Amino acid sequence: MSNGQARSKDWITKRRTLSFADGPKLMAILNVTPDSFSDGGRFAELDAALRQVEKMIEDGAEIIDIGGESTRPGSEHISPEVELSRVVPIIEAVAGRFDIAISVDTSKSAVAEQALEKGADIINDISGFRFDRDMAGIAAKCEAGVVLMHLKGSFETMHNTDPDTDIVEEVSNGLQWSIEKARSSGVSDDRMCIDVGIGFGKTQEQNLRLLRCLPEIVSRFPVFPMLVGLSRKSFIGRITGESDPEKRLAGTIAANCVALMAGADILRVHDVKPAAEALKVVSAVLN
User: How far is CA 36 from the centre of its chain?
Assistant: First the structure.
């Protein structure tokens, strides 16, 4: 487990600098898709999205992660034009109304570039710069912060699992590849954040092992903030027996606390207020 020391380094994004000197941060999920695994369709309309952002900020979010394409198992790849029509108006409206860091959850460079022009600060790329060869260059040109997630395969195969893989080595090697890709394209280390990609192409045991071994992975990449996304994921439902993602809050909070104690710097969450309360308790115990 982590020794509880807050990281003093900063994460530099397009319009602001995020400091971890005062502890971990919450990234709130705003899905503007009709088919997300958990809250699809609820926030696709502008007014509903803005009300939700306002609530998430009041509850303790410091980053809003806006996504227009579902990455649940079985989801279909959409065109850049469709994705742009979903995310850009909402990013522009959020940026115009609220003083908060905005992340665009996309693996398409065309979407990322326009989102950054309209107010986004961060590219959250689940592919770690694998799906779109132009993404790293756009990140560098626009001076964006980036989240590099571990993923193997294509969009269509990213949820395929290999139970024989040494998942700690696989994830570490994959993250190193993404970091080197970013560096070679001109993205500086202080603009990068990493994500082990729990729930993406991992078996149940591999997901649990990644959480157990998170301190080791954090120690391998000490320069970079570690983002962990556990919220409402199916591996939690398999443990608790809860098939409805919106009823996995208790399991999510437990997993989030484990991640915080293991060194996570950012939690990506749906339920901001309960996550913020849990974060305060963990921080009080560790510090």
Answer: 15
Instruction: Identify the sign of the CA torsion 9, 271, 65, 14.
Output: negative
Neighbours of 1 (CB within 10 A): 11
Beta strands in 87-234, from DSSP E residues, in sequence order? 101-105, 122-125, 145-149, 192-195, 226-229
pLDDT digits (tens, 9 = 90+) for 69-121: 987 666 577 899 999 999 999 999 999 999 999 999 999 999 999 999 999 99
Catalytic residue numbers, as ranges: 233, 268
Q: Is 107 helix (H, G, I), strand (E, B) or coil?
A: coil
Question: Residue 72: is it exposed, middle or buried by C-beta count within 10 angstroms (0-12/13-18/19+)?
Answer: middle
Residues 37 and 56: their CA atoms lie apart, in Å, by: 20
Task: Tell me the pLDDT tens digit for each residue of 143-199.
Answer: 999 999 999 766 666 567 788 889 999 999 999 999 999 999 999 999 999 999 999
CA distances from 230 to 78, 207, 214 (A): 24, 10, 13
Does the global pTM surpass 0.90?
Answer: yes
